[in-house]
Write a structure and sequence with these properties.
Elements: H1 23-32, H2 54-68, H3 80-84, H4 91-121
Length: 122
């Protein structure tokens, strides 16, 4: 710059504020200032003020659901939820269990008839 400038002092325009950091210092600063990578457990699926996209929320929820829930074979009994929490099952759950038992008996009976009919024709 020229010394004739009437705007500010000459020390403002000098390159003394530019620093040359070593490669190690640059890498350390980059590692310390990581904000792109989220920490585990930083987002709650139930947080309504979280600014994640709907797609990211759904992906997170499905990943969590697949890892924490048991498969459908574990939860066949409609009374299981109440029993596991130490409560008496509701009337609806009891009726569902009875209907489920009747359906399973009917399916088993039909399977036996199919096997019997297949055995007679062979």
């Amino acid at each position: 710059m020229t010394k004739d400038s009437q705007v500010g002092s000459a020390s403002i325009y000098e390159a003394g504020d530019q620093r040359n950091y070593s490669r190690d210092e640059q890498q350390k600063a980059k590692a310390d200032a990581r904000f792109d990578e989220g920490k585990k457990g930083a987002h709650s699926n139930l947080d309504s003020k979280d600014e994640r996209s709907i797609k990211n929320r759904l992906a997170s929820a499905s990943a969590e659901a697949s890892s924490t829930h048991e498969g459908p074979e574990k939860s066949k009994d409609p009374r299981q939820a109440a029993i596991s929490h130490g409560n008496e099952p509701s009337r609806g759950a009891k009726i569902d269990a009875e209907l489920q038992a009747e359906d399973e008996a009917m399916i088993a009976k039909k399977d036996a008839q199919k096997k019997g009919a297949a055995g007679q024709t062979s």
